[in-house]
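Exercise 7. Predict the joint structure of the components listed below.
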Amino acid sequence: MDHVVPLLVAIPLAGGFLMPVLGRLTKSHRALAVLPIAMACGLTLIAVALLTRPDETVVYWMGGWKFPIGISLVADGLSKLVVLVIAVISLLTLLFSLEYMTHYTRPGLYYGLFLLMVAGMMGVVISGDLFNIFVFLEIASIASYALVAYGTESDELEASLKYLVLSAIASTFILIGIAFVYNVTGHLNWAKIAEVIQAGGGLTMPLYVAAAFFLTGFGLKAAMVPFHAWLPDAHPSAPAPISAMLSGVLIKACGVYVLCRLTFSVLGSHQTFGTVLVVLGTLSMVLGALMAIGQADLKRLLAYSSISQVGYVVAAVGAALVGLALANGSKPIEVASHLAVFGGLFHLMNHAVFKSLLFLCSGSIEQATGTRLMANLSGLGKRMPVTGWALRVGALAISGVPPFGGFWSKLIIILALTQLAALAHWAFYIPAALAVVTAVVTLVYYAKVQRSVLGGEPSDAAEDAREVPATMCLASIVLAVLCLANALVVLPSVRSRLVDPAVRVLSAGVGSTVESATASADREVRTPAAAQVGANEGMTP
Amino acid sequence: MQGMSLIVKNITRLVAGFIAVFAVYDVVYGHVEPGGGFSGGVMLAASVVLVVLAFGGDFARRVLSVEVARWTTSLAVLAFLVVALGGYMVGQFFENFLWRGQVGELASAGTLAITSLAVGIEVGAGLFAAFVALAVFRRGGQASAGPGEMLET
Amino acid sequence: MTLAMVPFMLAFLILVIGLYAIVAKRNLIKVIVGLLMMDYAANLFLVLVGYRTPAEGAPVAPILTGGAAGAGDLAARAVDPLPQALILTSIVIGLSVTALVVALAIRLYEKYGTFDTELMRNLKG
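Solution:
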């Protein structure tokens, strides 16, 4: 059972190398899409199978080489959650691209790059070794640079160049951070680094510098303000399924996930990191929403909205860091921090689903009408019923309207921030208030989108728009249903399987990783003895 | 792309073969001596690129085949993956399941030698294909109006 | 600030020069060269991190020449081989990024007829 963990990376890698070969053998777009979709189904099955035993941590030493020379793959609660999100979103996006990519050339190349990107993201999420994360991060990033430029129009090339230069600077900073960490601790294994840092009495100055480099690098990958400048150009210019993948999973798997790992499990909860994350997250929330109001291009508005929503996740995670650092054994503060982590992870899941839904709908609209400017679009609700309803569902979900999942996750984040403000530090009222304001602003601009794009009489561009082919509709419908189904995560039975293990992993902080350091067997499956820590206390909003 | 002068062409005729042989030595002895797949592959690609630069684009189009390079790239890296998956036969992913021999001998280190070979072939063919795609198959420089497409070749 | 810090400072100097080139230069090729310089500066820094002075004698490159018997002697005197393996990977990654950015630059040249980035600012807002 544990042998399937490397397959999460090996299957899409094999696909990524096979697809260009197959692309040279056959030119049919639809025939080429069969293998990637089959692989994505396989990945989803593996992700679900891993989740059937949610509390186990699988430590897999590749090649049988143990610590200290081996490289491990670690699949704990947080990794399993993100793996599931990546697998599901990539399956639905591949389903969408079956028809959408018929307008582009060289489908073999497209599917190969797509699967390489998925392989890179999976590798980032399950890797237990710091440099391995860097390598997989680069695989995913390089594949995404090429995919953003896939249409090779001048806009897309310029956007890809900007994205590439900024992201390469970020990768260089990450490499320097890794050099600092290696210098101080002498190890690259996540868990062993945590152990050495704790044994050495906490963070020293070189580790602060390394943390600053990591924050810059991964903050740019996660598109936090002030490192967001590449996102509003790159995401609209990419083909719609790639925009969905970039906005939905790449900035989370490569950016937010690694930041969570670093600050919670490796470097240890620290007030400084938490404060920085809260400030940057709140800035992203507000700036993303404000910039989104004035956009004329639909996909650019969605890109700014991504910045805003990821700001929510980062602010929640940062607040939890500060809470855990200030707790000093005080139970209510700890519970509020756990709630903040739960809200952040829940919002991560939700945003992956509804942002990819919105980008896929915008792709359908662009394919049917040929334009993305909202001034030229109106009355599509009549012409394209399925896409119209999917767009409505996505917009309602992201604005935080009950009963969709977005409402619950935003509510939990705001509640957690308010509780931390009352218990730990009054300054948390500011992010809480700004979160509420941003939610209202989000509702405003999505209402504008709905009214201008779907309502009214069909404009010239929308006159001869017809509904898009069946597979694209299917992807949109499934994602819309998931928007609604995500609200069920609040229920204890669903929550305890999906999100609670991840919350436990992060809340246990350094303790959870120190356990997985020096394994004696080739692969170990560990059920934490403290599996009931923070289980059901105070999680009910 | 133009070729270069007569002196360059003659020197290239003498030297390119030796560079290629040294590259192959580097790849094959990768598990014993410093070097290995990547550096050997880069030198192999460099020797072919030297030939292309010295003799010009027409020679490259006639004699060297980009299709072969692309196929070799994909197949070599698939061979690498097959070797890694073959580790499952003896227990762990990526485990060394071939004969290991003595440290320092040529016939040793099991799958390391094979992966080094696969990486060397892949990097050599891949870098050659990338260079040729960038330098030889360009479609004459000035600002061309209208949408472009990915390379048709 | 001992003499041993000088190589690290110089590696950072190269990093800053590369960063300056990316930020301040208008020509796309100079931006690409700046990107390369940043990558190599990071690799240099990583290799410098692996330097070790052994208990006696001069440090030695970690090449195993005497078969398995020489391993113990090598472990006592060699510099750290792990960062060298890391930068091999990092150099390959830098190569891939360079190949991609040069391909983009060639495409952009075919579209605009110039390498000046100020003239390529279509996306705004």
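Discussion. Residues 255 and 381 of chain A are 36 Å apart (CA to CA).
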